[in-house]
User: Fold this.
Amino acid sequence: MNLDRRVIFLFIALAVILPLLRPLGLPVLPSKPVQKMYDVIEDLPDGSRVLLSFDYGSSTMPELYPMSLALLHHCFKRNFKVITMALWPEGATFAEQALKEVAEEYGKTYGEDYVHLGFKSGGLVVISAMGENIPETFPQDYQGKMVKEIPVMNGVQNFQDIDLIFDLSAGDPGIPAWVMIAQGRHQKVLGGGCTAVSAPQYFAYLQSGQLVGLLGGMKGAAEYEVLVEKKGTATAGMDAQSMAHSLIILLILLANIAFFSQKMKKEKR
Amino acid sequence: MPDEDSVNCRRFLQIDLDMLKIRTQLDIVTLLAFFVASASYRAFRARTPEATLLLVAATLVMIGRVPIGDFLYSGFPQVADWIMDVPNTAGQRAILIGIALGTVSASLRIILGIERVHLAGE
Assistant:
């Protein structure tokens, strides 16, 4: 069955746009890895220090940025001290945007409740150096202030002074590097958020306990939004994703029905 | 405190990022959705038993990983989770162990002088 690809493109566009304009309101139920992540964060005592690493770029922003917002909502709601950083250059900008968007809502003050260390090139080497000394690895924050003079960084020397690390990862450097150094070498509690495409390769870390929880793609972000009761763009996008997936499955089925009917016709001849 | 020049420079870079880089990269990635749909229609055929297995697994994961799957049948997410947890993780582990063994053997070949191509040898 020969279907013009422009027709397929049109159907996909409609399958994505229509649910965004008129949401179907399909229920989003948290999966086990997301629930685990939420429970681990929920069990941390008030005032715990959480390190969020924004290791992603623009191309993966629709999946990982809503995740960042949902996590920040949870951290600020629980009065955690939040330290953000980035191993990807654009990640630093996204961290700044996310902090601006969420911190105000909870009346959090920069420097006292949270700090943004900015971007540092080097990937695995940076993580390794942070395990030894964070203020030496990041002498200045994103705004150029001396890290040692920032109140929220008082008493933070290395990973031993951090209660939870969460990596928002779109590739390399990302979750594998954090697993190797922060979890493997320093035995830190580590959680991860990644794109839907890369999620399958991190299930091994989840099963081995090297990751305490995993948020996979926009669905993971939507599930976390539901858990923290802050519905955002990920939840809105789930209807569109549902429709797009259904359409692709329908196309695959149609193509296979056509393929087998042609095959049967040929065999009859 | 940062001076005026660096503030202006930062503002320009922010505009560049917001208006150009993010938009361009998102556009390119968005095209994937269209091409994946078209390619899956054209190429995803149950020609062999292996291809059929892949097709069935992919379909179940695709439907089980979105809310409509749970809406249609509550068992779809559980099936998708099982595929991700068991066969997928086993496959990923096999790949990781394979890479590790390959790296060790390649390193040993270089250390012991068996592999000398990088030194222009045979």
Notes: The radius of gyration of chain B is 24 Å. The mean pLDDT of chain B is 88. Helices of chain B lie at 4-43, 49-64, 67-72, 75-111.
